[in-house]
Amino acid sequence: MPKIQTKRKRVKFASDNVAGACPEVLEAIIKANEGDSTPYGNDPISKDLQDKFSEIFEKEVIVFPTASGTAANALALSTMTPSFGNIYCHRLSHINLDECGAPEFYTGGGKLVTLNGIMGKLTPEELDQSIGGKGIVHHTQPSSVSITQVCETGEVYQLDEIKKIAEITHKHNLNLHMDGARFANALVSLNASPAEMTWKSGVDVLSFGATKNGCFAAEAIVFFKKELVGNTAFLMKRAGHLLSKMRFVSAQLDGYLENNVWLKNAKHANDMGKKLSESLNQHKDIELVYPTEANEVFVKFPRHMIENLNSNGYEMNDEDFEGKTVRLVTAWNTQQKDIDHLLETIEKTN
Amino acid sequence: MPKIQTKRKRVKFASDNVAGACPEVLEAIIKANEGDSTPYGNDPISKDLQDKFSEIFEKEVIVFPTASGTAANALALSTMTPSFGNIYCHRLSHINLDECGAPEFYTGGGKLVTLNGIMGKLTPEELDQSIGGKGIVHHTQPSSVSITQVCETGEVYQLDEIKKIAEITHKHNLNLHMDGARFANALVSLNASPAEMTWKSGVDVLSFGATKNGCFAAEAIVFFKKELVGNTAFLMKRAGHLLSKMRFVSAQLDGYLENNVWLKNAKHANDMGKKLSESLNQHKDIELVYPTEANEVFVKFPRHMIENLNSNGYEMNDEDFEGKTVRLVTAWNTQQKDIDHLLETIEKTN
Amino acid sequence: MPKIQTKRKRVKFASDNVAGACPEVLEAIIKANEGDSTPYGNDPISKDLQDKFSEIFEKEVIVFPTASGTAANALALSTMTPSFGNIYCHRLSHINLDECGAPEFYTGGGKLVTLNGIMGKLTPEELDQSIGGKGIVHHTQPSSVSITQVCETGEVYQLDEIKKIAEITHKHNLNLHMDGARFANALVSLNASPAEMTWKSGVDVLSFGATKNGCFAAEAIVFFKKELVGNTAFLMKRAGHLLSKMRFVSAQLDGYLENNVWLKNAKHANDMGKKLSESLNQHKDIELVYPTEANEVFVKFPRHMIENLNSNGYEMNDEDFEGKTVRLVTAWNTQQKDIDHLLETIEKTN
Amino acid sequence: MPKIQTKRKRVKFASDNVAGACPEVLEAIIKANEGDSTPYGNDPISKDLQDKFSEIFEKEVIVFPTASGTAANALALSTMTPSFGNIYCHRLSHINLDECGAPEFYTGGGKLVTLNGIMGKLTPEELDQSIGGKGIVHHTQPSSVSITQVCETGEVYQLDEIKKIAEITHKHNLNLHMDGARFANALVSLNASPAEMTWKSGVDVLSFGATKNGCFAAEAIVFFKKELVGNTAFLMKRAGHLLSKMRFVSAQLDGYLENNVWLKNAKHANDMGKKLSESLNQHKDIELVYPTEANEVFVKFPRHMIENLNSNGYEMNDEDFEGKTVRLVTAWNTQQKDIDHLLETIEKTN
Questions:
Q1: Is the previous residue joined to D150 through a cis bond, with omega within 30 degrees of 0?
Q2: Among A297, A321, C202, C314, who pairs with A317 as Cys (CB 3.0-4.6 Å)?
Q3: For the segment A133-162, what is each residue's pLDDT rounded down to a tens digit?
Q4: pTM of the model
């Protein structure tokens, strides 16, 4: 990509997308590469995914594998939001701040109505008060609600919180989308089942993230409410997201789900997140900003500490960081020595 | 993908996208998977691609790797076509018939003006006559021309043919796009240099295909006319095509270009195509429909021969095939025994 | 409008949109201007229109008045065509050539599949053969058919021709739109009832033109198939076509329909068209190109005759007219003396 | 419009769009209706408008007449906002709340970033802090700022307030749009010149409202920064807003501007607004919510007073009005007796 510059030398903790794929996912791709196969998702691996997901979610679901989370989110939202529709979401949500308008593009101009929530989560009360204007021709029409799990402040929606959001959503005849970019991390954090954290709590469509937690480029749109599937296959093709050799996306998901690799990876990342959080929290000059509930740690460092980290190869908030929150993310491949190195570098700050 | 059914058992020759990735590309992915790296194309492999492509094309180019050819085409066209613009293309072109309206989606409603051409190629005369209405507010505005190389009938545009199309295109102040889904096959067929077949002949933007010729999912938009780049990075992100672990797309292209793997693959596929074409052409009941100039063979089989092939596991035109043309495609991994098996199956038709 | 230049001095016959409004329509506006009224179409005149149209069409219809024909067409088509849908239409159709891509804009990227037809009309055979690819994810999806009545060559679809087009349309589960920019002229020409020329022949949605035939700026979308209405009200508002003082559009339609003003206007225009056509046809150097079936006359003049007309203030084909067809249009206000003046000017050509 | 129901009997004060056209505008239409004229804005009246507006604004401007304010706003914004762009506006702004997503439609998915402001106005400080993320591919890109004059709370931006907003806007290389739905009312209120209230204070493009202040359906997009005009003519045609008999929109503007009709109308409306405001303010149970600076009066009535008004034919906030603010609007045709009638009705509340 020509436009983007980087000076980052030590990307560890910058995000969980700096990690590569885990061995099991790589193996699955290598295995899928034997012989020829039918293109465009008509291969056996892609087909089997339907059953695999249905089993995991304890319900017959419809699954569309995609290569990016932004595509999964935007496509999912476009199935539940007309061009004149409102998507209610947190003001900090990835779909609002970090997808360069993908939901607007895919919905043909839908409006993201941003809510303040409490920390990173929507509240049912604010949501309920915000939904209005239904049937009045002057107003964009309430259509869908989107929550992020793990949410943008690293917190995890509890099951009853999801249920209450879903209740309000459905009371107004809207549909509920979950951006599960860190779905596995949330699941492990809650110690809940995939079914409990989704359709049993009222989620209608899920963006199932896998890239960050051990894949190369693999996500999936999971429809619990089948009547929403509609024209997804056409919209996906039309967006250039129906890959010809789709089997290699499906194979990643296959290797990811097999033998609970995904849950093991997430558990490891969460455990490392907890360790990192606790270690940092013990430092008198470092302030934890949000509770660490999965694999993201939000802290405030004093300025000279950030400068020291950056001069040692890390890159913490490139500009204007004073008073800003720094996010550190652990991944499936984070090791104790990575945490140690960070802490040591911090210690060296005088 | 839930919506699509298949009965295909022997996919060989169905397309070149039934093949997996070649060993060198797989190796490149495995290698890229070591350690962490900066996301969103800011990794070293992605950055090096700029130079690598510039070297291959003997000109400083701007390159955007993508995971699908439809995305590459639609994004490329959206940089040269406003929402009220005309894209002139062959009526059989992939962008017109096989991308479910992706160019229309990405351009925000651009119009594909379809030309008849001669066989699969546009002619400069028809193109010249079709372009009109510039500056008149009632008419969609002439904006871009798109040609496919190898074109949809398996023919290859000769260099002077490209030049003439480009001349007309530029005479009207439009821009020229080349859909190079089988770019390497055309290059080998013409025995031309990448520069000669593109910017030296007047091509402004190229969709550089690699998936079919040995990658998993890797294409690239190559800008020869830099002023067209414009907002491509934003449009790509907004479409969900800026993958977080972009290095794995770039790594494929890296392995593909290194040591002329791409040209070797294409030469092999073309050689196999020639063999297949000659073998079939010797059969008295089989009629060659278009000249075989790269790796696609278009033939007419008698009906009972198709039925025999299908009953032997092949799948040649599922329905209504009488009088229809069947396309057979060879790939980087096609072997002589595959051709022999096909011919033997044909021989068995009584 | 700053961008458009004109040298036209004698606009008579250039189109029927050069005429102003007829007295009855002007009266209706003046009357509607008394007192205040509810905005956005909630006024009594707008409401009464629903019944008025239902009576005229002998069926309960849903009507949306609009200020432009392009808006009526594009909105109508957007109710029956998804963003990945095909609209089948004549290659010469106004929606294809003269609306600067409005159908593509309103449908979010729909594709106009253009048919050759015979002269200006679609044929059921070509339509039938063109519709294909349903349910296949690679192809834009057949969605709607649009015919123009009076069509672009001045011919009028006969009732049985409409019926056959409708039959093919509905056989493929598509919907049929009629662009009735000159609806009244066609009606008078056929001596048919509004019901016969529309829903009784299979038309699902009509763009009811009135501007050209005696209004200032008034058209209407008329839904015979109510389930297509869908979100029209929102789409219209969102396009800026729900005028706040909508009563003045409705009042025009009211005055237009009252006392058969519309039919009288159209009859007059058609009669004048016939006279003009016959007069021109008698001239040995003038060739009638299409039969004159309503108020449009298509002729070929020799070049010097065109030059003479233009030098006398007319403006017949501004550029490159050799061998081109000139269209002359009569209107509700065309007078015998206008025809005489034209003929005299022609006579003066030496 | 079929979908919308009304019970309103006494629409006076409901809005200024309940009034018809003033006599001068009606006269201009009647006069423009004599004879034929060139369509699509190529008529003399439309052409003269360019000079007329340039004279009024003391600068050579480019003007596009439109039939609706929503169209004017959305078109104007689409010239300064790409599909991935941010429009900064007040959360209460008409473009955000009352145009059913028209800006999103016309920009192809632009994002309205809503600011809280102070009462109905944006503040330069909040605007300055909100603009960010330029050049970063993940974020929608800051593109334009839109303010409403008279703003949505009936307040008028002072010249120095506009200048400060413009300063911030231009500091970030964005463009400034003014939604002047009540432009004349603001002008009269400020006792400023059109130039002072627009380009001299930094406004780049203006939606010049005329409908509410004495026209039938006439607004205009006025470009002070000519390089923004771009493809407006095509975008307008494509949206169905280039009326064929455009001269009747232009004629309205002509009659409106001639002899300062527009300023006289606005002065009258503002005077009536002031009277209404003062009269209501004297009532001990009625609370003025915002200062009355033009022709809109925002008050809180006790519930039983609203009920009484409604039972006497007025319609003040149809539902859920407790604690809500009621807006009363005076117009060019409001008379003292209208105010008296309202006050008398209020007095009758026991």
A1: yes
A2: A321
A3: 999 999 999 999 999 999 999 999 999 999
A4: 0.96
